[in-house]
Amino acid sequence: MKSDTQVHLQVDTARIVATGISDTGNVRSENEDAIFLDEAGTFLLLADGMGGHERGAEASQTALQVIQKYFQPEVVQEKLMDITKVEGVPAEVVCFSTLAAEAVDEANFILYTRNQEAQLKRFMGTTVVGLVAVKEEDYMLWFHVGDSRLYRWRNANLECLTSDHSAYAKWVKEGRQGTEPSKNIITKAIGPNAASSADVGWEKGQTDDIYILCSDGLTDMITDDHIAEILKAEDNVDDIAKQLVDAAKEAGGKDNTSTIVCSMSP
Fold first, then answer.
1. What angle do CA 4, 64, 29 make, to 5 degrees?
2. Distance (Å, rounded) from C-alpha 186 to C-alpha 160?
3. Cα separations in angstroms, 5 against 1, 30, 49, 184, 256
4. Rounded to whole angstroms, how far apart are CA atoms 229 and 108?
5. What whole-number distance in Å separates Cα of residue 29 and Cα of residue 13?
6. What is the pLDDT of residues 148-187, one digit of tens each?
7. What is the mean pLDDT of residues 4-29?
8. Coil, helix or strand at residue 94
9. Which residues touch 97 (CB under 8 Å, ≥6 apart)?
């Protein structure tokens, strides 16, 4: 029996306002996506699990449980005292970059170990994308593994800040030579392999910026142009998130669809 359960989370702080929605979609019987919004407004996480038979949901939820521990205030403060400063890079950016790497490493170790112990024929794994609001001079830092994405809407322009870890993205980058691969072949994820690492980026945020974290259940169903049209028509993060998910479902909703829409508070 198909579940029509939708997870809807919100956070409103002095730093960010964000809404997260995770929807099962029109076809799948289970939602293997997971989202997490930090109540203090420091970080946002989204994961898209794979593995089937409830293992995908286990993978995404486990990864977010592990990763969110690394961004707790007491952990951040302890890490800040130990980091090596890098010229031209804010100390907190170095700190959060290090924590993101360590968090992904532990999440990968835990899921990989479970895969080995259970001797699964189809290893469970998960993508992840995270956004961190850095206190120091309003920087925003992000990290990702897999094909879950982060977009930024600034001055009526939509830009994807992440590059998919997928066979299709690699094929496009290399000039579309040879047979076009399926879009759902992931080249990097948390769990299937003994080691995995996240790509990390950061920038100075601006007051009117809107950031969108999303699973491929959104981007496989609607185009970047469609996402931009919704952003042009709306400036409320809750309305944007709802319309994005509704648009994906109206286009077919073939996969679980999750998105977190975040704006920086003035």
1. 20
2. 18
3. 12, 9, 17, 24, 11
4. 37
5. 34
6. 999 999 999 999 999 999 888 888 888 888 888 888 889 9
7. 92
8. helix
9. 141, 143, 200, 202
Residue at 71: amino acid letter: F
For 154-163, the CB contacts below 8 A with 24+ separation are: 154/206, 154/208, 154/209, 154/210, 155/208, 156/232, 158/224, 158/227, 158/228, 158/231, 160/224, 161/201, 161/203, 162/129, 162/199, 162/201, 163/199
Render pLDDT for 50-78 as a digit per residue (tens, 0 to 9).
Answer: 977 679 999 999 999 999 999 999 999 99
Residue 131 CA neighbour count, 13 Å, CB half: 36
Which of these, 152, 129, 132, 149, lies nearest to 140 by C-alpha position?
Answer: 132
Amino acid letter, residue 28:
R
Distance (Å) of CA 139 to CA 150, 160, 172 = 15, 17, 31
Four-CA torsion 40, 41, 42, 43, nearest 10 degrees = 120
Pairing of strands 16-23, 33-37: unpaired
The DSSP H or E segment spanning 212 is strand 210-214
Token pair 């690394």 in the structure block, residue: 70
Given a contact cutoff of 8 angstroms between Cβ atoms, the answer to whether 150 and 132 are in contact is: no
**CA distances, 51 to each of 60, 120, 166, 168, 263 (Å):** 10, 9, 17, 20, 33
Strands 199-204 and 139-145: antiparallel
- Whether pLDDT at 1 is above 50: no
